[in-house]
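Hi everyone,

Forwarding the result from last night's run.
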Amino acid sequence: MNSKIQGKTIIITGASGGIGERMAIKAAESGANLALIARRTPLIDGLAAKLRDQYGVKVVGYPLDVRDHEAVAKAFREIKAEFGPIHVLINNAGFGIFKEAHEVSFEEVKGMIDVNVLGLMACTGEVLPIMKEQGYGHIVNIASQAGKFASPKSSAYSASKHAVLGFTNGLRMEAKRYGVLVTAVNPGPIATDFFTIADESGTYVKNVEKFMLNPDKVADKVIHALFTSKREINLPRWMNTGSLFYQLFPGVIETVGNRFFFKK
């Protein structure tokens, strides 16, 4: 529970499943009103109805593909008209494909960049002027440990998350002047349906299943951090330690960990 978000309006993209759905539930438990964005209309509408009935908060689903920038602008205008002030944006929409660089198609690379990076930027661009005028707000960008530490079979996905972290770090310094908080969330592998696309063979999930994060715990960490000055949320801690060591000793880590990295 986070009493700071009671009665506040929170937008969550990619809210129809995985940690997006879990964050929506946790936020509704804390009394927040929600604008939920996702491509899958039946799922987003079903979740909105469930949360309204169970928690008595205002929840509206907005079917939207964040790759469509004109549709993003239209949807955010509708959200502003429906809810008024927007207090939190959680940019969660994203996907990954784990293939070696010569195997991933240009269309797949473009898809990841369009959703993970440009869609995130488009949504941020819509709320930032609102939050600037209000003098407060919180933007949370779901990145990845892959954005800190690239590994084989995730070169394109890691590139997209590197971009998210670069954007987030710059945005944080810009937004601070207006009273707007910015947090990056860098999880390792989470036990969600993310891997139905990222890992079609199931090999990666099989190899790292015992290390996978519980989506409810990740969601709880994010919701609990809202309206705090948390710069980053890094999960799990041991993986983030590995990312820090990689930044200091990249050659050593690449040599020692080479066999493990190819478990994707």
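The longest helix spans residues 106-134.

Cheers,
N.
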